[in-house]
Amino acid sequence: MKSGQDAIVKDLVLVGGGHSHVILLKKFAMLPLPGVRLTVIARDVHTPYSGMLPGYLAGHYQFDEAHIDLRPLCQFAGARLYHDEAIMLDLEAKQVVCKGRPAVPYDVLSLNIGSTPDFNGISGAEEFTTPVKPINNFVDRWRLLVARVLDSPGPHRIGVVGAGAGGTELLLAAQYRLGNLLARRGQGTERLEFHLISKSETILPNFGPGVRRHFERLLAARGVHVHCGAEAAKVEPGAIIIAGGKAIELDEILWVTAAGAPPWLRQSGLDVDEAGFVLVRDTLQSTSHGDVFAAGDIATVVNHPRPKAGVFAVRQGPPLTENLRRVLVGRPARKFSPQRAFLVLISTGDKRAVAAKWGFSAEGQWVWKWKDWIDRRFMRKFNELPKMAAEEAPPLDPGLADQATLKDISAIAMRCGGCGAKVGANVLTRALADLEPVANTDVLVGLHAPDDAAVVQIPDGKVMVHTVDYFRAFIDDAYVFGQVAANHALSDIFAMGAEAQSALAIATVPYGLEAKVETTIREMMTGAIDILNEAGATLVGGHTSEGPELALGFSINGLADRDAILRKGGMAAGEVLILTKALGTGTLFAADMQMKAKGRWIEEALKSMVQSNRAAARCLFDHGASACTDITGFGLLGHMVEMTKASGVDVEIDFDSLPILDGAEETVRLGILSSLQPANVRLRRAIRNLAEVQGHQRYPLVFDPQTSGGLLASLPAARAEACLRALRDLGYARAVLIGRVTAPSDHLEPVTLI
Ligand SMILES: Cc1cc2nc3c(=O)[nH]c(=O)nc-3n(C[C@H](O)[C@H](O)[C@H](O)COP(=O)(O)OP(=O)(O)OC[C@H]3O[C@@H](n4cnc5c(N)ncnc54)[C@H](O)[C@@H]3O)c2cc1C
């Protein structure tokens, strides 16, 4: 993996994939800073572009047109993408505390996390409204709202609280979209009622009279009820209560009031303003902590306060990048003063828009076309990434590190192999100090009392099941890689119908400065321990060495009752085949390396890869499974053939029923396949009707190698339905029946694809 191989001297951690950070990533991709590792911690992997959001809601743009995909962008920039949420900063230890992974250390930190809804303590607002912030959540909730409106047979009253540019634009977009959807169903909009509610005395209080008058006329013409000077005092189910007691009855309430900041910034000890936004100097550095930067909505530039708008976040991207680079190499940051006047383009829902600047305004279809051109040009910068020629990395900037560190770096190149490649004892002790393997009375000598080897007892009447797996990191996220590697290794045990008892780890970590190696081991092993503990497998020891790239494997010991072992053999004609997880990880991660996989595809694939097969195995066993295996490197067909051989039967597999991960059919169509695919395809000779099926669009996917794939089991047809219901209840949403077992025939090929 790119980021692991270079000598990492400093960590630049970016929290949030907002408008400023996407610009920074692009700039770092075009001009990397050797020795600096970029890590992006992002709650959402697709960042909505604010300029296109109303157009997206109005139905003029598709999701991918209006969102920046952080995954390929991070790949392009050589940055690690951690899909997680920052919940606190430890400014002393210089760490970002995250919701679902170990704290992430930084040398320099940058915050671009946008804003949160500000309910201003109004009772019921949080429970009974749909806040527009965070926008990502709103996009999902908007879909639900649309469904509710379309499904409700009678009148539906929709209120938007907040009559600034965002609220007004949102209302007009919503009205347009819902009108269109109803028209498609042959219905009119008479049953819809729209209300715009604002505590200010006019709509668009920050705009000139020309723009205001235009929108007042437009809202009146579109039948919108405008309530100005109406401060929300309380929200109840079905109504908003205005100060003074008047109630406005509403079925949906969208909350688009002034933005707020999450409380953890203040709690962390950063200087913040009254509303909780990070106070920054003209250099975008925190007024209290020079190694913390902030940009976009979340920052308040003390000397140049501006409205919270995406346009400012975009403009701060280049100076933020420049100043982070400067500070990382020990140079002083430069002052930046944002422009005062900026062009405002507010759309009116119907592919028209209003432009305003310096007190002038204009309206029309041409303004929308102009806005659309600007927005699409902006998005192309992130969604169409150029191919970069591989160039030799320039030498480290001497300002990046002190003499001692530079000496350490040159020593890395001289590291020995053999036993000398072992990670130093101090590094290892510190990295593993916080790991807490699950307690197990069978473990007589383990990590709690380290020795030359672990000693584990086998309980009476049990047999021991052994397995080992080891592979290179396929993602630049050591924590998630640790989870997947452990899960993958455990699956062999579960597929045998056994329970995991103990584990030994074997790890390779890229050469680097001690502190960076320590963090990588800690992150990777925390991920692994989370999974091993959940599975009841106690980590009893391991071995870690340095090498060119990150890799991890486990030897797992499991226990089973002698007569309750599930083998590959045992399938009987008349039984059916169940697969518990979707296929496609091989092609998807090949596409990811080429920056051709969408972030959401990879997220879904990773979710599937960290899902344990333990409960599925138990469920299959309880429903009478006669044979079982886990799908890994040989792909579905390879593992299927192993089962048919061992069982002496034939099988029919139904192409259309195969569960496929989102995006995998698309990447296969683009010809993107795993490097293991050609070896797996050799087994096509096992397919009886090869000539007939090799043109099928799903054909390559039966060979696709899986990492931490699902279980494939054979069981009596009569029990299949109940088994599938139980599997889905256990969270295996993609579990399906994929085929049937038939009696052995005279044909040499055991598999028929139908
Ligand atoms: C309806 C509507 C229309 C708008 N139209 C416009 C417009 O036309 N022009 C304009 O200039 N502005 C517009 N705005 C305002 C604009 O949306 C915001 O000002 C802009 O999005 C702020 O950009 P940002 O870069 O600060 O953060 P954002 O774009 O909000 O990005 C922040 C990112 O950080 C991530 N994040 C948040 N918290 C965390 C966390 N704790 N850990 C990790 N990641 C986190 C989020 O997932 C998000 O992707 C509009 C707003 C609304 C509501």
Write the layout of secondary structure elements.
Elements: H1 2-5, E1 10-15, H2 19-30, E2 36-42, E3 46-48, H3 53-58, H4 63-66, E4 67-69, H5 70-77, E5 80-83, E6 86-90, E7 95-98, E8 104-105, E9 108-111, E10 116-117, H6 125-128, E11 130-131, H7 135-151, E12 156-161, H8 165-184, E13 192-197, H9 209-221, E14 225-227, E15 232-236, E16 239-242, E17 247-249, E18 252-255, E19 259-260, H10 264-268, E20 278-280, E21 292-294, E22 299-301, H11 310-328, E23 344-347, E24 353-357, E25 360-364, H12 365-383, H13 403-412, H14 425-432, E26 443-445, E27 455-456, E28 462-472, H15 478-495, E29 499-510, H16 514-535, E30 538-547, E31 551-561, E32 575-579, H17 585-593, H18 599-610, H19 614-622, E33 627-630, H20 635-647, E34 650-653, H21 664-669, H22 677-681, H23 690-693, E35 711-716, H24 717-729, E36 736-742, E37 751-753
Parallel strand pairs: 1-2, 1-9, 2-5, 9-21, 11-18, 12-13, 12-18, 13-14, 20-22, 29-30, 34-37
Antiparallel strand pairs: 3-4, 6-7, 7-8, 10-19, 15-16, 16-17, 23-24, 24-25, 26-27, 28-31, 29-31, 32-35, 32-36, 33-35, 34-36
Helix pairs in contact: 2-5, 2-11, 14-16, 15-16, 17-18
This protein binds flavin-adenine dinucleotide.
Flavin-adenine dinucleotide (FAD) is lined by residues 15-20, 41-44, 47, 50-51, 53-54, 85-86, 112-114, 132, 134-136, 166, 169-170, 256, 296-298, 308-311, 313.
